[in-house]
Task: structure prediction
Amino acid sequence: MDKHNIAILVARPLAESIFDRRDLDVLAGFADFNAVGSLPETITPDFMRETLKGARGCVTCWGTPSFADEMMAGNPQLKLIAHAAGSVRALIPLSAWVAGLRVTSNAPVIAEDVAQTTLAFMLTSLKQFWQFDDITKSGGWSGGEAGRFTTKRLDGLVVGLVGGSLVGKAVLKLLRPFGCEIILHDPYICEIEARELGVRLVSLEELLTVSDVISLHAPGNPDCRHMLNARNIPLIKDGALLINTARGILIDEPALIRELATGRFNACIDVTDPEPPAPDHPFRSMKNVVLTPHIAGGHTVNGRTMLGRNVIRELYNYLTKGVLAYEVRPEMLERMA
Result:
């Protein structure tokens, strides 16, 4: 079998974290590619143009510059872009699909990672591990005192998922063994699919009103901007938990801050708008907010190598059989994160 030319367009430190040596040996069995060790610290458009010459497929990731239309037109032999990260909305122009290019993304792989982070936020927050850690490290040991227990278990709680995306569906799957009631708000999911998923479709207002846990998994597109705002954030019930591992743009942050300041409910915030938040941003000091630096998906050690392994699998399946497991079609872009 003749080997195919593959261009790796990933910054060296990142490439070293996602590609396992054994997986690169598999790639070498069916493709010629530029060595990971020779990659630059930063990928530039000039490097892309030079490396893409003669390449039938390429690998991209976080930090890869956007493909310009002229770059696509100048490489007619390019047939596949295998994106080792999630969304490709800002990476690939529509002209690529018009020209017949195929695109694959690791969004489904990262979704599993985000879902596990979301579940971790739920369990540790409902059990109040953060607060008990503060108590015990400051010398206290009052967990067993009468009236001290205000923790919750997931069984019997109402969990509201905003968005039946890849992540939303992965979270739903993880929640099934816990015996909670799961409701969903997503205008793109019909009643038939909802029944198959085992969830009840509700309005956003009802979801915010009745949910003990609210988890956001909607795309960061203009239609979803500030879907949680000054009008509906006050509907969140006392004692609830709000989790955002999706996009900061989904929430009107000043409105959320005003409501969180009352202490009525708690929040786990992994994404903000903009990022990073200002050094004096209220999220950084609020006792009822757990703030993490956009690490929900794609940043675990073993998860990183899964990203590299999957793009190599996709490259092989396309180049040898013409099939892709995680293909991105242009009509999917609008609803991608």
